[in-house]
Amino acid sequence: MKILSCLLSIAVVLSSMVFPVCADNTRFLTAWELQSELRAGINIGNSLDAFQGAGIADYGVGQETYWGNPRITRELLQAFADKGFSTVRLPVTWSTHTTGDYVIDSAWLARVKEVVEIALDEGFYVILNSHHDSYDVNPNNTDRLEYEKVADEVSAIWAQVAPYFKDYPDTLVFETMNEPNNPNGWTWYNGKNPDPQLVDAVNRLNSDAYNIIRNSGGNNDKRNIIFATAGASIEGLNAITDVPDEHILFEVHLYPNAEVASGETTKIVHTADEIAEIQARIGAPVVIDECGFISDWDSSYAEDGDRSIVAAKVMFEALSKYGIPSALWDNGYGFGILDRKTYEYKNGTAEGVALAALNAYGVRNPNQPKLGDIDNDGYLTVMDIVLYKQSLANWTSAPKLSDIINIADIDGDGKTDILDVVLLTREVIQAHA
């Protein structure tokens, strides 16, 4: 309490000065800027998205382990950080943790928050989505995805999730949905003309989620949002006609199993070229926030480990040439990258695929200091505020501003000033609250 009281006192003094704090002073990257930051990512799949059954909420937070994976731990996220990944995508199924009127279980929200905060604390960009909800499972619709049958649930989910995370920094990214599709066939099998009704439904659902997020307060008025595309496909991407603001990206998923099996990688390069052309045309960046190479399953494609690694190298090099980031799908087993108990690579194929991504995009420096960590001790504390003020006053014992600008420019305006100190104070208060 003494520490918190001290922090609050500092905050009061600083806020009484003639340098007001406002939301516009908080750093928020545009979608294009974010795209260049995401680089090589990893999905922690078949965990927070696992469920006992559609519409069943009786198993509570225990559903996280229902598909055979242990609970997500800090050690797992540290292991991915140590390997050099920059981004973590957290697939989450919300609907099986709700009551009949779509109210999300508070214990489930708290568990998701716990994992999000661990990932942010480990220095990741975090993509938080709605994964296996009714637009995907769609148990009441055996023919095609219809907007009216899923709109209430999608809106209800984001009406609760968005305000719950509204004050988080721009390193938290929302994703409206995952692979919205027709139950009787994947969109990308339809060539260049996906089902118009599916495209219309996805566009309307994206719009609903967007309006809810943007009006939910806090930092959500400018938070980056990844819009779903029909089937998370190139065809769905090609059908995009509207980009509502500069903080919107679009998803595409790539699983080049056939190309791995055949050893023919030309199509992979052409796919990257096509995605780059489409993102230029629609004026919004794309993220491959799911892609995978089978590492540990018997497969009808009869993948060979060496060919998987070759194909991964081709794909990541082709995408990285355009600055299009990718996140490997790790489900803990067939597409697993790390063993979730030992935190080591599952096998040589998993390691080779991971290194293909990390080498193409560049390995994140796990020792990179945190923004605002002036004394470089790994934590945001009162001492960071004191040192920052001393640096502004040109104390000889304090760090030179020119040496710390990369971690001292809190609001991202290219300068180090008292506004940054105010923002740092707020961050320290939140860290110790």
What does this structure look like?
With 433 residues, the chain is an alpha/beta fold. Helices cover 42% and strands 9% of the residues. It is built from 15 helices and eight strands. The protein has helices spanning 2-15, 31-38, 74-83, 106-121, 134-137, 147-164, 196-214, 234-238, 257-262, 266-282, 305-320, 348-361, 382-392, 401-408, 418-432, and strands spanning 40-44, 87-90, 125-129, 172-175, 225-227, 248-254, 286-291, 326-330. An eight-stranded parallel beta barrel has the order 1-2-3-4-5-6-7-8, surrounded by four helices. The longest helix is centred in the middle third of the chain and has 19 residues, at 196-214.
Unreliable runs: 1-8, 10-25, 137-142, 186-191, 299-303
What is the β-strand count?
8
**Strand composition percent:** 5-15%
Shape: globular
CATH homologous superfamily grouping of the largest domain: Glycosidases
CATH class of the largest domain: Alpha Beta
Numbering strands along the chain, what is their spatial order in the largest sheet? Answer: 1-2-3-4-5-6-7-8
Q: Architecture of the largest domain, according to CATH?
A: Alpha-Beta Barrel
The mean pLDDT is 84
CATH overall fold name of the largest domain: TIM Barrel
Number of helices: 15
Structural class comes to alpha/beta
What is the total domain count? 2
Gyration radius (Cα, Å) is 22 Å
From N to C, what is the helix and strand string? HHEHEHEHHEHEHEHHEHEHHHH
What is the straight-line distance between the termini? Answer: 9 Å
Question: What are the SSEs and their pairings?
Answer:
Elements: H1 2-15, H2 31-38, E1 40-44, H3 74-83, E2 87-90, H4 106-121, E3 125-129, H5 134-137, H6 147-164, E4 172-175, H7 196-214, E5 225-227, H8 234-238, E6 248-254, H9 257-262, H10 266-282, E7 286-291, H11 305-320, E8 326-330, H12 348-361, H13 382-392, H14 401-408, H15 418-432
Parallel strand pairs: 1-2, 1-8, 2-3, 3-4, 4-5, 5-6, 6-7, 7-8
